[in-house]
Amino acid sequence: MAKPQESDSCQVQACELQSCLNKNTYSPEKCEKHMRQLYLCCESMYKATQDKGESTACPMPSAVRRWLKNHPE
């Protein structure tokens, strides 16, 4: 099976978050679960690529780490 393109990494999670935000009139607190899934996906992609991976769905690695640190489960 072919490895997905890095640029597509976490796109599914980003789309699910966007759908949630659209349904909840951009109330991020109602979409925390989707936000966490996206950031965990991004964290995994960055770990696998030593922070060199790129995805249109993910903010820069330091922003991902900061968000996860500030939003513990």
Describe it for me?
The protein is mainly α and 73 residues long. The protein has one domain (10-70). 55% of the residues lie in helices and 0% in strands. The protein contains three helices and no strands. The chain has helices spanning 11-23, 32-48, 61-70. The N and C termini lie far apart (33 Å). The model is unreliable at 1-5 (pLDDT under 50).
Summed over residues and divided by their number, the pLDDT gives a mean of: 88
Oligomer description: single chain
- Counting DSSP H or I runs of 4 or more residues, the number of helices is 3
Strand content: under 5%
- Share of helix, binned: 40-55%
Tell me the layout of helices and strands.
Elements: H1 11-23, H2 32-48, H3 61-70
Helix pairs in contact: 1-2, 2-3
Q: What keywords describe this structure?
A:
mainly alpha; globular; 73 residues; Cx9C motif-containing protein 4, mitochondrial; 3 helices; disordered N terminus; 55% helix; mitochondrion; CMC4
